[in-house]
Amino acid sequence: MQHPAPSAARDTGGLFGHPRGLTNLFFTELWERFGYYGMRALLTLFMVAPIAAGGLGFDTRTAGVIYGTYTMSVYMLSIPGGYIADNFLGARAAVLWGGVIIAAGYFALAVHSPLFFYAGLVLVACGTGLLKPNISSMVGSLYSREDGRRDAGFSIFYMGINIGAFLAPLITGWLAQSDAFKSMLTSWGMDPARSWHWGFAAAGVGMTIGLVVYLVQWQRLADVGHPPAAGAPRPWGKLLGVLAGAALLFALVRVSDTNPAFAWIRYGYVVVPILAILWFGSRNDPSLKRFAAIWVFSLAAIIFWAIFEQAGSTIALFGDQLTRLEILGYKFPSAWFQSVNSIWVITLSPFFAWTWVKLGDKQPSSPMKFAIGLFFLGLSFLLMVPAAQLTAEGKVSPMWIVGLFFLQTIGELCLSPVGLSTLTKLAPGNLVGLVMGIWFLAAALGNKLAGVLAGEFTATDAKALSNFFLHQAGWVGVAFVALLLVTPWVRKLMGEVK
Ligand code: GLN
């Protein structure tokens, strides 16, 4: 049973009057994301660091390709991960095994060897594919479809994600990069150039803490995330199909990356969802119609992440090269900009959770929240247009980036937790894992597009840079208007789901 009956929704024993299972999932995901963002913060730096400094000595392009492929795979493997949970393991066990595989991956990265490096990346990507969609779908299963706490529950869960994302780079970065820790290693008779691997090991410790939390609080999950009934068919053939589909998709994306003659495949990231929307939307079966709505949300999410996920590229470069790295006389490393988004999520989430509960039935519909999300995303890049123009006169204030993240985070909180909540509601009970897989596929493609778009970044031409931001803001504006126009139709497609 995926959605508890209204009586079960009375469980208020967890965080902030939410179901008890939320406490478990909140802390488990906090630690999983601690590992994910803690390792991600080091990954590129480790690959490009010279061999003498303990790195892999890759050039920036190679590192960029590995980074892009890794972050895309992590989310793309959510499709088979969701399918395996729906049809074989159940979400609960999928999260457990996913966590074990992820931890093994980080500990592999703790070993100084290229073989362990690649094996570690593959393990983390596979494990995350099992864990990430299914922990999200279990949050959804804690609430009945009608439960007014549902969006608020996802906002709280999302806050946990960002507490992990905020803390992790501070710790793994300190271990990997600080002189203080390097001299500690020297004083212990160890090689200071191996500090990177301590950072990766810290990610593994984080995931291990997450697993302990998960097991200790197992009982709190009550009846969510069980495997399909013993007699239910186990569709091995279809599983192979899903795996082959994911592999094909992966290959297509890689070809579009590496062979300029196939760069046009990238248009498919937008065109294929549109075709899916039209096909599903024209069906008579209401549950197929819901898939049209699922694809509308996913397409909006692709566009959202394509801009938002430039935080680690475009915005990191803008921060590093075009911004005064000083606040009130205090100098700070440019990597700190990476924590600003999480700080905003942590400060703004309670406000959002409270607002959704307060508005109750009067809250905007989910497609409308998505449109608001795109609106703020567009504003964030519009804000960078004058900032980019000002770079013609020298470095600009760090407050531009703080402002950018403020606007983006408002957008993110209208879209990302709401998307999780809405899609778990729209998914037919036995397909909730698969639908989460589609949602994270959107994140995968968005991450990929973000990499493509960031390739146009320039730090040396203020006019071109302001156009860079303006054009992207313009396209987001088009997506915003399009979503507003289809909102009444999407509401119809969603049936009784709000
Ligand atoms: N930052 C969020 C997370 O780590 C959302 C990521 C995504 O869906 N692209 O879960």
Notes on the protein architecture:
With 498 residues, the protein is an all-alpha fold. The protein has two domains: 14-258, MFS general substrate transporter like domains (Growth Hormone, Chain: A); 261-498, MFS general substrate transporter like domains (Growth Hormone, Chain: A, Up-down Bundle). Helix content is 72%, strand content 1%. The protein is built from 17 helices and two strands. A two-stranded antiparallel sheet has the order 1-2. Strand 1 and strand 2 (330-331) form a beta hairpin. Helix 4 (91-109) runs antiparallel to helix 8 (195-216) and helix 11 (286-308) packs antiparallel against helix 17. The longest helix is centred in the last third of the chain and has 32 residues, at 462-493. Glutamine binds next to loops.
Summarize the structure.
With 498 residues, the chain is an all-alpha fold.
Structural class: mainly alpha
Question: How many separate structural domains?
Answer: 2
Sketch the topology as an H/E string, one letter per element.
HHHHHHHHHHHHEEHHHHH
Strand content: under 5%
CATH topology of the largest domain: the name is Growth Hormone, Chain: A
Task: Supply the key terms.
binds glutamine, Growth Hormone, Chain: A, 498 residues, mainly alpha, two-stranded antiparallel sheet, disordered N terminus
